Automatic annotation (TrEMBL):
<dbReference type="Pfam" id="PF00135">
    <property type="entry name" value="COesterase"/>
</dbReference>
<feature type="active site" description="Acyl-ester intermediate">
    <location>
        <position position="316"/>
    </location>
</feature>
<dbReference type="GO" id="GO:0019695">
    <property type="term" value="P:choline metabolic process"/>
</dbReference>
<dbReference type="InterPro" id="IPR029058">
    <property type="entry name" value="AB_hydrolase_fold"/>
</dbReference>
<feature type="active site" description="Charge relay system">
    <location>
        <position position="443"/>
    </location>
</feature>
<keyword id="KW-0531">Neurotransmitter degradation</keyword>
<dbReference type="InterPro" id="IPR000997">
    <property type="entry name" value="Cholinesterase"/>
</dbReference>
<dbReference type="InterPro" id="IPR019826">
    <property type="entry name" value="Carboxylesterase_B_AS"/>
</dbReference>
<dbReference type="GO" id="GO:0003990">
    <property type="term" value="F:acetylcholinesterase activity"/>
</dbReference>
<keyword id="KW-0770">Synapse</keyword>
<protein>
    <recommendedName>
        <fullName>Carboxylic ester hydrolase</fullName>
        <ecNumber>3.1.1.-</ecNumber>
    </recommendedName>
</protein>
<keyword id="KW-0378">Hydrolase</keyword>
<keyword id="KW-1015">Disulfide bond</keyword>
<comment type="similarity">
    <text>Belongs to the type-B carboxylesterase/lipase family.</text>
</comment>
<dbReference type="GO" id="GO:0005886">
    <property type="term" value="C:plasma membrane"/>
</dbReference>
<comment type="function">
    <text>Rapidly hydrolyzes choline released into the synapse.</text>
</comment>
<dbReference type="GO" id="GO:0006581">
    <property type="term" value="P:acetylcholine catabolic process"/>
</dbReference>
Length: 698
């Protein structure tokens, strides 16, 4: 059967299935033995169009429809058909909507929900929300799990999303948005067992490919034209969900009276597989975000939000995604400004080449057992991957990758992105607007704990000898030549205490954190500041007293999230009062920025007690976020970032004929460098450092 016809048939069936059951029976000719053929759910109709079995239903169904004349059913309508049939027979055995009954019964007038604040009219139909109570006791209204795209299943797997059909075909249906949505299919972290510092990031709703939903939280009483903040979760583009407890926006919404929207988007190979074909065009997860942004722009006014004042904010891979939206011509007009926490598109893990992405896709096909996984056999490979279970795909996609290398990430597809971010920044090809961004003091430890598991145990007594330090530098920098690696050792060695096991341990954290996070955040902020945009930079330095990780891990990657969303105000979690004050201050900064474009200035013109200076290209100003400090500084970590961004690229270019043995798969500690090589390295370091010192920005 022609695929386009299949899709149209499926769409017609979906629209029919959105009707209450009695209307579906009437459209099929009434009751009788044929009733079973009408008994088709939305999921079954879509899968029936491609001749495959539907996916298993989630453990807790989160999408219910109700007829506007009545209350929401406790179970989906098709589960109650036998009750409806018995009721009809009790009235004389006539079908529910026989011609005789229809002629004598006038349809009820559409109910008026103008005075029900939980029923909101969107472009696709009415949605019913729920009132929630934040941990502080304040109430917010929430609409959880509103579909913004068709289910990406069957032939839609790997493709860009398609707009969802209206569920309100008669003017009587209401979509029940009262339960958290599914999480997109992903692997579950089990490395540290049930350790709360790790499990807090695992999905807390059922995993399902049917996961393209948005949720809206609004303060009570409902505002008009309120600032809107759209959250984009992180997770290396291979994991994450907007439903995590740490992302609960209820406190932020109720304290700062902003509207917060969160979205689910596809991750891992299901969201970022790329074969440069119509079936697998790549960047599906980014296009999911784009469609969610379009939904917000089109509908948020109905929830009390201002479609002309939308601030994107995200962390880690979510911050990378936010920054990519600043670069993409497709999405840059759908929002006003951006907040990026510990993420930048110039990070080495953020974007891979088209060639590398295709090779990873073929390796995945080989791992799941697809026959002849080659470029010349792509149509068959794609069919095989489409027929492989989603769970198998995400389990098999992890191959031999280095630290902070994630299997499937954004790619320069020529559509969403048409050039590398470095080029866009250099040519100033990005959205000109206000941005707020920053990083944490110990960005690297979280990833080292997962990568060097034998050396870095989840214990208090972890120390790194000099030999282990040299081995770790080699393991953590597999793609640089020996000269460049020696330069990294030189830069991160405390030469007053080269054998200090504590300093060696902490130096590895700074090395990973600088290279993968802090210096890329600095680079992005600097490029923006050069164009005259208002840039606000922070450096988060506070370690929570209830942090479950060993004390030496310091202020880890993502530790600021608890404070941005107000978790420290939850009395059950036993944060220190000073931590609650820090959280209030950060929520006010973030909300002020969303409302006015300036974290120090509120809507009414009042100013915060601590002034947050603008980050300029000359001064590189940043504000410290800590319980006991509000100092400002320059940078942060300007010297180390000059090493990564200025000196090391020159050194690598000058020694490009020396190849790293790791590139061919070698392992083990690096052999001692000959004295002549060490002398050459030292001389090269001094020469380039002196040259870089003269050319460096202030």
């Amino acid at each position: 059967m022609d695929e386009d016809q299949d899709g149209e048939d499926a769409a017609q069936q979906v629209r029919a299935d959105h009707l209450p059951l009695d209307r579906r029976l009437a459209s099929s000719g009434g009751g009788g033995e044929d009733d079973e053929e009408v008994e088709v759910t939305v999921e079954e109709s879509l899968w029936g169009a491609v001749g495959e079995a539907p996916p298993p239903a989630p453990a807790a169904p989160h999408t219910q429809h109700e007829d506007a004349a009545g209350a929401a059913p406790a179970r989906p309508a098709h589960r109650k058909r036998s009750n409806q049939r018995r009721s009809a027979q009790g009235q004389g055995g006539s079908p529910p909507h026989s011609p005789h009954t229809f002629n004598q019964t006038q349809p009820p007038p559409p109910p008026n929900y103008d005075h029900d604040p939980l029923v909101v009219m969107t472009k696709k139909g009415r949605v019913r929300g729920v009132t929630l109570r934040a941990a502080t006791g304040k109430e917010v209204d929430a609409w959880l799990g509103i579909p913004y795209a068709q289910k990406p299943i069957g032939p839609l797997r790997f493709r860009h999303p398609r707009p969802v059909d209206s569920w309100d075909v008669t003017g009587h249906e209401i979509y029940n948005a009262t339960k958290q949505p599914n999480s997109c299919v992903q692997i579950i972290d089990t490395l540290f067992g049930d350790f709360p510092g790790a499990t807090m990031w695992n999905p807390n709703t059922p995993l399902n490919e049917d996961c393209l939903y948005v949720s809206v939280h609004a303060p009570r009483p409902r505002p008009r034209n309120a600032a809107v903040m759209v959250w984009v979760f992180g997770g290396g583009f291979y994991s994450g969900t907007s439903t995590l407890d740490v992302y609960d926006p209820s406190i932020l919404v109720s304290e700062e009276r902003v509207i917060v929207v969160s979205m689910q988007y596809r991750v891992a190979s299901l969201g970022f597989l790329f074969f440069d074909t119509t079936d697998v065009p790549g960047n599906a997860g980014l296009f999911d975000q784009l469609m969610a942004l379009q939904w917000v722009h089109d509908n948020i006014h109905a929830f009390g939000g201002n479609p002309n004042n939308i601030t994107l904010f995200g962390e880690s891979a979510g911050a990378v995604a936010v920054s990519i939206h600043l670069l993409s011509p497709l999405s840059r007009n759908l929002f006003s400004q951006a907040i990026m926490e510990s993420g930048s598109p110039t990070a080495p893990w953020a974007i891979i080449s088209r060639e590398e992405s295709i090779l990873r896709g073929l390796r995945l096909a080989e791992a799941v057992g697809c026959p002849n996984p080659t470029r010349g056999n792509l149509p068959a490979v794609i069919r095989c991957l489409r027929n492989t279970s989603a769970e198998t795909l995400v389990e098999k996609e992890w191959g031999t990758l280095g630290i902070c290398e994630f299997p499937f990430v954004p790619v320069i597809d020529g559509s969403f992105l048409d050039e590398m971010p470095q080029k866009s920044l250099a040519t100033r090809n990005f959205k000109k607007t206000n941005i707020l961004m920053g990083s944490n003091t110990e960005e690297g430890y979280y990833f080292i704990l997962y990568y060097l598991t034998e050396l870095f145990r989840k214990e208090e007594d972890v120390y790194v000898s000099r030999d282990d330090f040299l081995m770790a530098v080699r393991e953590l920098n597999p793609y640089v030549n020996p000269v460049a690696r020696q330069a990294i050792v030189f830069e991160y060695t405390d030469w007053l205490n080269p054998d200090d096991s504590t300093r060696n341990r902490d130096a590895l954290d700074k090395m990973v954190g600088d290279y993968h996070f802090t210096c890329n955040v600095n680079e992005f902020a600097h490029r923006y500041a050069e164009t005259g945009n208002n840039v606000y930079m922070y450096y988060f330095k506070h370690r929570s007293l209830n942090n479950p990780w060993p004390s030496w891990t310091g202020v880890m990657h993502a530790d600021e999230i608890n404070y941005v969303f107000g978790e420290a105000l939850n009395p059950k979690l036993k944060y220190h009062p000073l931590e609650a004050e820090l959280s209030k201050r950060m929520m006010r900064y973030w909300a002020n920025f969303a409302k006015t474009g300036n974290p120090s200035m509120s809507e009414d013109g009042s100013w915060t007690s601590t002034y947050w200076p603008v980050h300029t290209a000359y001064g590189r100003e940043y504000l410290t976020l800590d319980t006991n400090s509000t100092e400002t500084g320059r940078g942060p970590r300007l010297k180390q970032c000059a090493f990564w961004k200025k000196y090391l690229p020159q050194l690598i270019a000058a020694t490009s004929n020396m190849h790293s043995s790791e590139c061919s798969g070698a392992a083990g500690p690096a052999p001692p460098a000959p004295p002549a090589m060490l002398l050459a390295v030292v001389l090269a370091v001094l020469a380039l450092a002196l040259g870089g010192q003269r050319a460096a920005d202030p």
